[in-house]
Automatic annotation (TrEMBL):
Gene source species: Characodon lateralis
PANTHER family: HEDGEHOG-INTERACTING PROTEIN, HHIP-LIKE PROTEIN 2
Ranges of residues in domain Glucose/Sorbosone dehydrogenase: 110-252
Cited SUPFAM superfamilies: Soluble quinoprotein glucose dehydrogenase
First and last residue of the signal peptide: none
Name used for this protein in its record: HHIP-like protein 2
Length: 266
């Protein structure tokens, strides 16, 4: 069964918690699990402490897999009215399994940073990779061979693990169906030294709705980036019709720039 709070079963929100091999099991449920199913543990984990204690000491084993917050251990996480009262209507199959599980829609991508549709009723999805590609996925889940957009030669990326620079944002004009306009946000570099973020307008090809016109780019805004991280990247059209650009605070530990830091500077 899937729950929107499933990450809590593994203490996933706390970066200081060691990676858990087993989800957090409430003590009452754990004792039943240990009594009936402990023989399957060798297939679920290689944690020798869990395996050793499960074989000789149920209370110790269950105390290890329990969670300090009893709201989030299994099965309490599915039964708590405080957590589950506002999740909307869910559907159960004949066996009682909740139909709110995740379904994979794309794979074999390199650092995908966004997925969005163009609002033109073609039922296509556009997925962007940080290195500067945007791919078109059709309604049946297949991906077109040729990318919608390839500016990988212009985008600033590095082999540094966790680098936040690159192709970071894209937004289709609210009237894209009629004007073919969209906007992109990406990192660039000048003279191998100065780093900037660039926001540009582009248009789709007149001859192929699945390919952007590579010669249509019109630079709207460039901002010098003081550091390599916290680059933001989101582009969104508001209900007011304006394009909103989220730049991040400029980076470095503690947001050191300016009198108060960019994050606090209106």
């Amino acid at each position: 069964e899937c729950s929107p709070y499933a990450a809590h079963l593994y203490d996933a929100e706390d970066p200081y918690t060691p990676v858990r091999d087993l989800p957090g099991l409430c003590f009452g449920f754990c004792s039943k699990f240990h009594n009936k199913c402990r023989h399957v543990l060798k297939y679920l984990t290689e944690n020798q402490l869990l395996l050793d204690t499960s074989g000789r000491d149920m209370p110790t084993f269950c105390s290890i897999v329990d969670l300090s917050d009893q709201d989030y251990c299994y099965p309490n996480v599915l039964k708590s009215t405080d957590l589950n009262s506002n999740l909307g209507q869910v559907v159960e199959d004949p066996r009682g399994c909740l139909q709110i599980c995740l379904t994979e829609v794309a794979n074999n991508l390199r650092n995908p940073v966004l997925m969005l549709h163009s609002g033109d009723e073609t039922h296509r999805m556009f997925i962007a990779e940080q290195i500067g590609f945007v791919w078109v996925y059709l309604r049946d889940g297949s991906r077109l061979e040729q990318p919608f957009l390839d500016i990988s030669g212009d985008v600033l990326t590095t082999p540094w693990l966790g680098d936040e620079r690159g192709f970071l944002g894209m937004a289709f004009h609210p009237k894209y169906r009629h004007n073919g306009r969209f906007f992109i946000y990406y990192s660039i570099q000048f003279n191998s030294k100065v780093e900037k973020i660039r926001i540009s307008e582009m248009k789709v090809s007149r001859n192929d709705m699945n390919i952007a016109d590579p010669y249509s780019e019109r630079v709207i805004l460039e901002i010098e980036e003081p550091a390599a991280n916290h680059n933001g990247g989101q582009l969104l059209f508001g209900r007011d019709g304006y394009l909103y650009i989220f730049t991040g605070d400029g980076g470095k530990a503690g947001d050191q720039f300016g009198k108060h830091g960019n994050g606090q500077n209106k």
